[in-house]
Amino acid sequence: MKKKKPKNRKKRELQVMRDIIAEKHHGLQPKNYGNRKFMEGSFNVESHEEHLLQISALLEVCILALDGNAEFYTAMLRHKTAKDSVQMVLQMIIELLPFDDIFKYERIKAILENDIEHRYFPETLK
Question: Do residues 70 and 82 lie in contact, with contact meaning Cβ atoms separated by under 8 Å?
Fold first, then answer.
């Protein structure tokens, strides 16, 4: 037996997609991870392309730092090593990768394709 579609399904789908897109927070936000408290930072970019270009630039800086003689020339940074600095930047790059955006994209795609079996299909629409 075929199920009837709810009358307001399209409106509900649009509202769920709007809610998904609105899940953004900027600036430092307090976050708890287990027993530890951290501040989570974010920044604004104009597009996904700009975001990926910034990540690429950070990776290029790491490559250049590791390719050179790995020394800092200012007195304030002499105690730092390129390896330590590159490691910190690489950790930051991992945090900057847009995993959350990709997750949101998958949820929206599942709604648009009406793929109820998709693992990211919102429970509120089932």
Answer: yes
Are 110 and 123 within 8 A, CB to CB?
Answer: no
Measured distance CA(126)–CA(123) in Å, rounded: 5
How many residues are present in the chain? Answer: 126
Cα angle 113, 52, 54; round to 5: 155
Mean pLDDT of the chain: 79
Distance CA 38, CA 74 (A): 31
State the Cα–Cα distance between residues 108 and 102, nearest whole angstrom: 10
Distance CA 42, CA 99 (A): 14
Say if CB 70 and CB 81 are below 8 A apart: yes
pLDDT at residue 67 is higher than 60: yes
